[in-house]
């Protein structure tokens, strides 16, 4: 089975903060899929959004050396499994599937998750959650899930409200299947507090929320904590946290 890959590397999870389901600071092998249907204006992986332009994928030869080798796309599931095994440093918490949007390639994603689980690793899914029908197909294989709630200011799609409702539905499906799941909201200085209240109402009693400032950070601490307070007021004080893209401050992948 073939898939359009972007890169595979070994690092530590830089996002998620301390809410249940987060793997922040845990060592992971990241499997980045090429291709995405959304266009978040602040996306830090823009070079991988158009899968037809990702002609080859790269994989680390040795963790934290900055050395890569390249293979042409499409990749085979077995090629990716081989690289995962080569990058296994023996201290891997889970395999992170990110992108791009991994659920767009649901069949190879499912095959890969199944193989990796059989090899003894846990699966950590990083997704925009816009396709609940795809999420259904893999939910039983997912151990951890980080599901974005796309804020209006991401300008990810024309149907922003519909997207948010589908993301929440994906969270529901993952939770029902037993995956440790949290929601991640990337906020900007333009984010409206009434939208944060709406997301919090949807997530209340369902999953914890981390609020992650868009990088580069331009939002004030006061505004960030206003979002925090409003979300915690609705969802409960133990169900909200902050998340920062810490890996970017250490210049690691
Ligand atoms: C590149 S996305 C890939 C997974 C999936 N497409 C998604 O959006 O959740 C991985 C994570 O990086 C976050 N991210 C991307 N660019 C960012 C930025 N400039 N600032 C903060 N978070 C960002 C996304 O919100 C998402 O949680
Ligand atoms: N270290 C590290 N942590 C991450 N957490 C989410 C990432 C992503 O791009 O999905 C990411 C990434 O690219 N690197
Ligand atoms: S959904 Fe994820 S990969 Fe797609 S544009 Fe948004 S942040 Fe980037
Ligand atoms: Mg990233």
Give a verbal description of the structure.
- The protein has 253 residues and is of the alpha/beta class.
- It has one domain (2-185): Alpha-Beta Barrel (TIM Barrel), CATH 3.20.20.
- Helix content is 29%, strand content 24%.
- It has six helices and twelve strands.
- The chain has helices spanning 77-86, 106-118, 132-138, 160-176, 193-203, 221-235; strands at residues 2-3, 5-12, 27-33, 56-60, 68-72, 75-76, 94-98, 123-127, 144-149, 180-187, 209-213, 240-242.
- β10 (180-187), α5 (193-203) and β11 form a beta-alpha-beta unit.
- α1 packs across α2.
- The protein is globular and about 45 Å long.
- The model has no long low-confidence stretch (mean pLDDT 98).
- Magnesium ion binds at residues 44-45.
- Its EC number is 4.3.99.3.
- Homodimer.
- This is 7-carboxy-7-deazaguanine synthase.
- Pathway: Purine metabolism; 7-cyano-7-deazaguanine biosynthesis.
- Mg(2+) binds at residue 45.
Summarize the structure.
With 253 residues, the chain is of the alpha/beta class. It has helices at residues 77-86, 106-118, 132-138, 160-176, 193-203, 221-235, and strands at 2-3, 5-12, 27-33, 56-60, 68-72, 75-76, 94-98, 123-127, 144-149, 180-187, 209-213, 240-242. The protein has one domain (2-185): Alpha-Beta Barrel (TIM Barrel).
Characteristic terms for this protein:
ten-stranded mixed beta sheet, TIM Barrel, two-stranded antiparallel sheet, binds magnesium ion, alpha/beta, binds iron/sulfur cluster, single chain, 253 residues, binds S-adenosylmethionine
């Amino acid at each position: 089975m073939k898939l359009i890959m972007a890169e595979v590397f070994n690092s530590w999870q830089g996002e998620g903060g301390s809410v249940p389901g987060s793997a922040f600071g845990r060592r992971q092998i990241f499997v980045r899929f090429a291709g995405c249907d959304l266009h978040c204006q602040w996306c830090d992986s823009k070079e991988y959004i158009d899968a037809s332009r990702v002609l080859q994928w790269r994989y680390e030869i040795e963790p934290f050396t900055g050395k890569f080798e390249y293979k042409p796309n499409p990749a085979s599931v077995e090629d990716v499994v081989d690289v995962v095994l080569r990058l296994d440093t023996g201290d891997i918490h889970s395999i992170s599937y990110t992108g791009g949007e991994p659920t767009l390639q649901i069949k190879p994603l499912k095959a890969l998750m199944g193989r990796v689980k059989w090899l003894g690793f846990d699966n950590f899914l990083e997704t925009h959650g816009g396709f609940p029908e795809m999420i259904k197909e893999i939910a039983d294989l997912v151990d951890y899930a980080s599901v974005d709630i796309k804020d209006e200011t991401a300008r990810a799609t024309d149907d922003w409200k519909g997207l948010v409702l589908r993301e929440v539905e994906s969270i529901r499906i993952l939770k029902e299947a037993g995956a440790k799941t949290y929601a991640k909201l990337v906020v900007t200085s333009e984010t409206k507090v009434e939208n944060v209240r709406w997301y919090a109402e949807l997530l209340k009693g369902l999953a914890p929320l981390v609020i992650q400032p868009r990088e580069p950070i331009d939002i004030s601490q006061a505004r960030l904590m206003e979002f925090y307070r409003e979300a915690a007021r609705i969802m409960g004080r133990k169900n909200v946290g902050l998340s920062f893209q810490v890996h970017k401050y250490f210049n690691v992948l």
